[in-house]
Amino acid sequence: MKRRDFMRLGLVGAGLMTLQAAPSLATETKNTPLVGAGGLFYTKENTGRWVGKEGTHFPTAEIQKLAGGVSIKVTTAHEMNGFEHYIVKHVLLDKNFQFLNEHFFNPNVDKAAISTFALPNYTGTLHILSLCNKHDLWLNSIEL
Ligand SMILES: [Fe+2]
Prior knowledge:
The chain is 15% helix and 36% strand. By secondary structure, the chain is an alpha+beta fold. The protein has one domain: SOR catalytic domain (Immunoglobulin-like).
């Protein structure tokens, strides 16, 4: 494993482990400020040191209802400039910030940061993370 890949995975792991280790996050709703917003992760409202980057880093979601669940199409309107600057992955977490699914991108193949997830029988808050290799971790929370 290359040093850069190791560091990238470490950052993602540390970020997700910290989210999971903060149970107070799980009790908050989308209408209350999330602990860590603007520091550990970034939101549309809390851009922290990345002011002006929200338009190309905040993940958006399109929901399509299916029989027995929904399909979530996640998009980050970000360039995919090879391994120089790209979206590493999208991650879905449940209302308690527990891992549901993820999609890794290959910037040599993927021309856009778009992923699709099937979520059978899930309702409530869904947290969506998008990780840029240069501009950190961005969170959107939606209600299903
Ligand atoms: Fe970026």
